[in-house]
């Protein structure tokens, strides 16, 4: 079933009773060419590109819950490619280009909205750092504009420009950044992969990995054994647990990241804005709710909920940026489990078994990476060599000392 203006019109005239399911609910087959563990954004995107671009269609995505139950349906929907370092910049720009054509490509409305991402600066030193980042972006062909205080104030009049501690001096703007409806991304990739023949097996947990010699020959699941020629791990916050099944210890820690949404308000924030003097970011949804978040909860956890100390911390940073926030009501908050790597950058690599591939370490920035991550992981699985934009995301970089520390924080996963 393809969406078109005509199909929407005809189905509307027939009372919308004839749409078919977007993907099948297949029984697992005994064996696949490729089994992907994790039906989040990255696992589904990998299956989509494997089947569409690389012609590998005998693929299963094994998901322990339902599609969208992980971080793909929990994030704050921000996309951007405003990176400084050469290891990151081309990859995230590749992702941005894929976002720009994604809805046409998978024939699904994911509400890709390039409404801009603005990072505020509050001191001369921070302005200099943002100038450097903006210049690096432009040298890589990525759009970046440095705005002064008057330009920011014209865009965002309700912010606190007189704050004694954190006066807003300006911001670094990427106009092509923005937001995308996160669960629609999972649905679009699932639908596209399914129509190419991929089996998406929900409510099926991988509980073990069977090895023979130097190979992974399949996965033990709650629905029985499923064999494969190649095994790909894309379990995000649970990567360490899944990798442990083959004795692989990853340089990752799992932490909770919370997000919040307020009651609906009249439009007053066009794009995404981040506070430069603390960790707080906000955008306004099409329904008018403010969608915001901040730091991760600073302890290791696999729970999809956080604690009140972080709620207070996020609210304080938000109020320093927009004093009127103290008068709005928060409708909902939730949490997701982040696979925080030691340098804040991801891992897309072939690992110690002959046919085992790893995709992890997305920290709290993996949503924007979804298309490129899926494409590059599929490239690695199909061709056996990394895609040119993902060459730096090797697992052994931690042993070799070639870390990609975008924030310059050192080996502190809770600070990236
Ligand atoms: C509150 C919050 C806000 C965020 N905001 C942003 C943002 O604005 N921009 C951005 O770029 N990123 C953001 N992120 C990060 C982003 O969501 C993640 O980095 C990204 O979604 C992770 O990849 P994924 O979609 O594949 O993860 P997931 O959707 O978590 O997929 C992993 C899947 O693996 C499954 N799984 C795990 N173990 C097993 C097993 N044993 N067997 C079978 N299946 C298993 C899980 O059930 C899960 O569905 C945010 C995250 C959170 C939680």
Automatic annotation (TrEMBL):
Its main location: cytoplasm. Signal peptide: none annotated. Pfam families: DAO. It catalyses: sarcosine + (6S)-5,6,7,8-tetrahydrofolate + O2 = (6R)-5,10-methylene-5,6,7,8-tetrahydrofolate + glycine + H2O2; sarcosine + O2 + H2O = formaldehyde + glycine + H2O2. Its EC number is 1.5.3.24. It is an enzyme of class 1 (oxidoreductase). Keywords: Cytoplasm, FAD, Flavoprotein, FMN, Nucleotide-binding, Oxidoreductase. Transmembrane segments: none annotated. The keyword ATP-binding does not apply. Residues 34-78 form the Rhodanese domain. Its cofactor is FMN; FAD. One of its GO terms (molecular function) is sarcosine oxidase activity. It is found in: Cytoplasm. PROSITE patterns: RHODANESE_3 (PS50206). InterPro entries: FAD-dep_OxRdtase, FAD/NAD-bd_sf, Rhodanese-like_dom, SoxB. Belongs to the SoxB family. This is Sarcosine oxidase subunit beta.
């Amino acid at each position: 079933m393809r969406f078109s203006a005509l199909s929407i019109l005809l189905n509307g005239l027939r009372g919308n009773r004839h749409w078919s399911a977007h993907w099948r609910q297949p029984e697992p087959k005994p064996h696949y060419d490729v089994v992907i563990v994790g039906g989040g954004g990255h696992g589904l995107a990998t299956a989509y590109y494997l089947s569409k671009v690389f012609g590998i269609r005998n693929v299963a995505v094994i998901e322990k819950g339902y599609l969208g139950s992980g971080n793909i349906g929990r994030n704050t929907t921000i996309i951007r490619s405003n990176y400084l370092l050469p290891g990151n910049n081309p990859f995230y720009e590749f992702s941005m280009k894929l976002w720009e054509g994604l809805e046409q490509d998978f024939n699904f409305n994911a509400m890709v909205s390039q409404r801009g991402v603005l990072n505020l600066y509050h001191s001369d030193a921070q302005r200099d750092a943002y100038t450097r980042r903006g210049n690096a972006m432009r040298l890589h062909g990525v759009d970046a504009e440095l705005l002064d205080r008057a330009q920011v104030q014209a865009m965002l009049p309700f912010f606190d420009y007189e704050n004694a501690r954190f006066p807003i001096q300006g911001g670094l703007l990427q106009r092509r950044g923005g937001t995308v409806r996160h669960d629609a991304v999972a649905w679009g990739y699932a639908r596209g992969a399914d129509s190419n023949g991929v089996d998406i097996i929900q409510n099926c947990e991988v509980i073990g990995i069977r090895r023979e010699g130097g190979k992974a020959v399949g996965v033990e699941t709650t629905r029985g054994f499923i064999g494969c020629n190649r095994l790909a791990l894309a379990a995000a916050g649970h990567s360490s647990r899944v990798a442990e099944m083959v004795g692989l210890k990853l340089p990752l820690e799992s932490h909770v990241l919370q997000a919040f949404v307020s009651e609906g308000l009249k439009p007053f924030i066009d794009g995404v804005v981040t506070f430069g003097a603390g960790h707080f970011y906000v955008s306004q949804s099409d329904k008018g709710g403010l969608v915001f978040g901040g730091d991760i909860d600073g302890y290791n956890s696999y729970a999809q909920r956080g604690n009140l100390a972080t709620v207070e911390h996020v609210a304080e940073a938000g109020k320093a940026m927009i004093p009127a926030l103290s008068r709005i009501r928060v409708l909902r908050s939730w949490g997701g489990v982040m696979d925080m790597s030691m340098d804040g950058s991801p891992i897309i690599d072939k690992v110690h078994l002959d046919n085992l591939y790893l995709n992890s370490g997305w920290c709290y920035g993996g949503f924007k990476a979804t298309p490129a991550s899926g494409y590059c992981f599929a490239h690695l699985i199909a061709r056996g060599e990394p895609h040119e934009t993902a060459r730096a995301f090797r697992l052994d970089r931690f042993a070799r000392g070639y870390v990609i520390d975008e924030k310059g924080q050192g080996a502190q996963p809770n600070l990236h």
